[in-house]
Amino acid sequence: MSTLPLFPDSAAVADGELVVGGVRTSALAERFGTPLVVYCEQTLRARARAYRAAAPDALVAYGTKAFPNVAVLKLLAEEGLGADISSRGELEYALRAGIPGNRIVVHGNNKSLEELRACAAAGVAQVVVDAPDEVELCAQAGIRSILVRTTLGVDVDTHAAIATGHHGSKFGLPPELAMETLAAARAAGIEAAGLHMHLGSQLLDAAPGQEAVVGLLQVVLEARERLNGWTPTTIDLGGGLGIAYTGADAPPSVDAFAGGLVRRFRQEWETHRLPQPRLILEPGRSIVGQAGFTLYRVGVVKATGDGTTYVAIDGGMSDNPRPQLYGAVYEALLAQRADEAVAPGSFAVCGKHCESGDVLIEEARLPHPRRGDLLAVPATGAYTLSMGSNYNALPRPAAVLVGDGSARLIRRRETINDLLALEA
Ligand code: LLP
Fold first, then answer.
1. Ligand 1: distance of its center to the CA of 306 in Å?
2. CATH for 42-287?
3. Of 34, 166, 331, 356, which cross-links 297 as Cys (Cβ 3.0–4.6 Å)?
């Protein structure tokens, strides 16, 4: 099965070579070096537009953590998106990209007073309170409107490290405490605008979200009774839509997942004759994940005693720790031999770090790789560079944006001097 559908929308093979945004991958590697994370402008805009079309009256706040990048944030802002931020650093990226405060939503399970003050100064739309004592911090910082994050006891089918909707999550508050926190906010003179939910990430099934909307409705109905007719003016339904990492993944479309969630929400609220609040969505991975892929250069290719053939690349767990963290499975393509038949068996694509666990793909199906080949790994636009490290003092890769036959640098490659500059 072809790996091409896992790459950005503009991906094609011409003369046996992977071409994205009208640019040959060999030209990208030549000009910018490897490892290189390549983003496709067409795909980024298409995903942003899909969200805007699925939920025209919602604020779509891009989950900046997936890939904090000023050029990408600017492009998404042009498409009408805002940003979900969860640290002072992410706030500064959003502001640098010109995202207005009223399109910024603030997260974090342990916000500092200093962070909240910066958010207040930026005039953010909402701070999502994650613990009762954050109300006091918000009041001190001068935050005027909050949402309270609640856990609805909905289980989702994803890696345990990225599931958040269950009771016992480190995020959010069970409904009882969430209601008390809304009341505390009102008592502190802060607008208790509404509730927030986020069930988890890399969700390939829309059903739990629909279930959660019904749970949310119950919390709102109860809160109305307890808090003298309190009615939410804003509800944040979170993010979570997954992407295809391999041919075996079949994510729902943006419309089926996010549009379906919003339609279900509107319908439930209608049925209960509740005033329709403003909705917020917070997609991260489904905006940038498929838009990005990573280009590596193959070095050592060697057979081992048990028959495994290792194909070593010039990066690894420092630019993509997802296999180690979540057991993530990727596919790959030899970018300049894209129309060659795959060899029998499989290859273990490993990084250059000093750990046996530094294996990016355990069983890649490829033509027999050779030193100097370019290896392209699709679906690496989200949570790769943003979770990268400098393990083994490796400088982190550059990122480029391609479209209409040209490429531009959107994040320069780190240098060893950048690393040494931190040393005392
Ligand atoms: N909203 C909140 C409150 C979140 O915590 C997250 C992600 C999002 C929105 C965006 O979720 P998305 O649409 O991207 O699923 N590093 C992990 C993923 C961590 C997700 C963190 N929160 C990974 O590589 O799979």
1. 38
2. 3.20.20.10
3. 34
